Amino acid sequence: MTDQVYNDAKSRILRCITKLKTFAQASIEYNNERGSAGKRAKISKMITELTPIRNTVEDDVQKMESAVNSHTAPVGITDTSESQALISSFDSLYYELAAFADVHKFTMSPVMDTASTSFSNQTNSSHSLSAFQLPKRKFPTFSGVLTEWQSFDDLFTSILSHTPDLPDVERFEYLKMSLTGEALALVSHLSLTATNYTSAWKILRSRYGNKRDLARVHLDSLLAPQIVKSNDATSIQQQINTILENTAALDNLDFVTRQWSPLLVHVFEKHLDYELRARWELVVGDNYYPQVSEFVDFLRSHLRSADIYSSSVSVNQPDDVSKPQRSFKPQSFKPRSSGRSTVLAATTSNVSEKPCPLCSAPHSIRTCKLFTDQSPSERFLIAKDHRLCINCLGSGHSSMRCNSKYKCQTCKKAHHSLLHFTPTASPSTKLGPGSSNTLSTKTPEPLSSVGSHVATTSCLVRGQPQQIVLLSTAIVEVYAADGRRHALRALLDSGSQASFITEKAVCALMLRRFHSSVSVTTFASSASTVVRGKCNIKIAPTGQQSPSFCLDVSIVPQITGPTPQTPITPGHWAHMSSLSLADPSYNIPGPIDLLFGADLFPSVLLDGTQKGQPGEPLALNTVFGWVLMGPTEFYDGSSVTTLCLNVSDPIDSLIKKFWELEELPTTCHLSPADIAAEEIYNSTTTRLSSGRFVVTLPFLKPRPLLGDSKTLALQRFKALECRLTRNKDLQAQYAEFMRDYLTAGHMELIPPSDLGNPYHYYIPHHCVLKPDSLTTKLRVVFNASAKTSAGISLNESMHTGPKLQPDIQVVLLRSRLWKYLFTADIKQIFLATGESFRSLAFGYRISPSAISTFVPKVLAAIQKQLVPIYLPSPDQINWNQKAEEFKKRWDFPNCVAAIDGKHVRIVAPSKSRSMYFNFKGFFSIVLLAMIDANCKFVVIDVGSYGKEGDAGIFNKSKMGLLVKNETIFPPSTLLPHSNILVPHVIVGDEAFRLSEHLMKPYSKTQMLEDPNKRKFNYRLSKARRVSENAFGIMCAIFRIFFTPINLKPETVDSVIVVCCCLHNMLRDDYIHRNPSQLVIYQDVEDFPTQNMIPLAGTGGFTKSDGFQVRSRFTDYFSTQDFTI
To answer: Which residues fall in a compositionally biased region of kind Polar residues (predicted)?
Structure first.
């Protein structure tokens, strides 16, 4: 056979690669046990065989390439890509082992040394070019792609390292032969000389060896938007490859990507669809800094499930799943059994096979690097060689039996998008403007006949090639709802009165929709497109902020098909060679997302047009760039009209008749009462926009008065409540059912105005337990048979209605039509709403024990949010502000706050009752507070026992410690308009001890003896009044202080703190609205403060510093200028 040489050479190369893999494994074992003499001898022997193996491989590669050039290779092999792939795999292993031998001082081959000596002698004796023997393989090529530069540089240098004496001029020649495209253009101006070889390398390395440019390319790849779907293994694998390849490349460039994990994971999360994003949030939990490795592991775990999903819906799906399922129909609705035409459809699904049939790696062939790097024609031949389906690239079935519903995204034909290529038309088949083509018209002879039915199949394909006309398309950027800009493809159409956007684009931009009643008409004013609303968009040219346009667009499912219909090769049109196009990919078929009509078209046009030769498109200048429109010299012969008809065999009608023989009769005889109930249902049943049915109860008489049903219902509910309190598990299940009932909208709270409605019927309810049930162990029963005071029940006042559930025989026969059956309990069957929804009522309430668990949690949440805002710890700046407010409002300079304490009455606690019993003869908790000039709480201390006096409470309280720590107050200052230096103080009543920073009034005896002391007491009482005002206002607002609080002491502490925060919040709002008014109410004494009792004084020693400070204030207030 002519292809035997090629196949033999390929087999030998594969055996050599396998042998090198064995050598590589032996080198790993030697690294693990370097002290073993046996392993060293073994690996040394293997290393000496490398050179003969390489010579064999190079000879076989030449044989394979010669077979391809002489057209003696196997059918389907037209280039040397396969031999290049084999030699690339061999080189990777060979150079790895050669480096290993060099590091560990192994001799490659004795023959190599002799050859080197001979080569050296030849070099010294002659300068013949034959002395420089390069490896027998092709040099790598480089076209200017940044990501390929490093591998090209290393491999090219490694190949030339085998001939160190090769002149630089020849090295330069090899270098130019290896360059293409942009890279070749950079060095093409250099003449072929030895000195220019170094210059060429400097130019290339300065252009492509820039680490910053390489990093930018990899960062762009990482940050590029992608769509990762939960059931699409290809998109998940592509995201994994993108992350691993680019992060590894950045690490090689000395970047520490693991420190970017929070930023990168935030970007990658946006690529996930809703389902994958939800799963990721469940996995990451409270981990605020997930690593990239965790994200990749998450994707890998879901990659396996996506592969299984793809396989289950394509390869493993039985043939009869895609067929329409036969449903049960009553006999009165028999379909006509005459011979009817059926339309056959096939569906596809991306099949993920493991391992890859091409490289045996654990991935799909669609993501295989060896496969995707080939040209479309080569990929087609690979698919044929491995017996793959050309529709889905799956194995195990042919394209005729493929269930895939997808087609090529470019031409919409029945093959995979990776196998799409534009065929080159031969001169004999090239279509011109006036040609037509009829492919086939065939009617096969019938194989058999049944009666008068004949199975026929006909296919007619006609096509009329048309000249391709370019439409004016542009790439524009549209602002999404979150402010980000998205690039969309727009079509400029001056013949449209309105602008449009596709449904898919609106969803991607998350734009707000508005109702629209626009009707889109085309030829002959016929409505052709359904408008799904309208929205407002803002657009701008790509990469620019201005000019920008805002316009209303109508939403349609699709604007047009891919434009242009087929790929075209850009022509050499001289008139547009230097133009910046608005749509650089105008020649590639792509979807249209926007259509700009005459409402925007004049606004985007600029001065200037470019015309070419007849048959060449016209270029218009717009704000988006130059747009192309008009005819081209290309013709489209791929769009054809196909008519397929398949008349099914009569066997289908025979099967239908067979099943109809076993069907039960569906004729149903209704009683007059059932007919009346059906008439009520037919005349009153409607459906809400939410999908819920509205049904009226079938009463015997319109809105009957049933009597008192509430009394009996409440009695039974109280008995049920007692039963539930004895069984916590049962109570929790019952409460869960009621919460579900309320959440689903099956019940709602009765308004107070409807409580006395005589037409209400209160339904008693109870629970039924079924512990042995596998699904529903608790079932709540609503007893509508309970009689009211009138001796009639709800069920007795309504029609029974016809039977709704079918007989068991019908259920069993119908079950035979389906392959899989599911059994489950029906939940909340026959629930409905309607006019009579408010006619039904029942009693239920949340248990007191449940409420007691809600209150502490709510208080803790409010306290956590409000305390930092409305009760912050004051600093010296705050104290200065408060001192200024006291001087301005209450005529007491250097005063920062007023202090007072109250007993908050509580119900006697179960534990430590004596600790909370105070001198007034009741139980209480002490609230000690410092209040500013605006009647707001500054510092509070809550939780002291009621039996304690003010001295003990103040000394151990937070504010007592603040007063002792003199550094918290601002430094001493002079009183206004005087030279009297005093510290900043707080003012209190007789219950507190006088100190340097706490002023209290003079005693009654002292006040009567000295009028100056009486003036001081007046000023102090005026300033101290803010504390009484604050407590009075808080009691008036929060009624919980009206009576003793029946909660645990620790919960009472939280109640007091929350009330103080809410009081400050309300005071801020009141002061903002009434800046000139000091107090909310006129008579503060009328505030209901009977539940807050003042503290009792317990005495204490007064420091002499306190007397001196108070005397200075007394002297200041008694001067003539400041006499009251």
So the answer is: 423-443
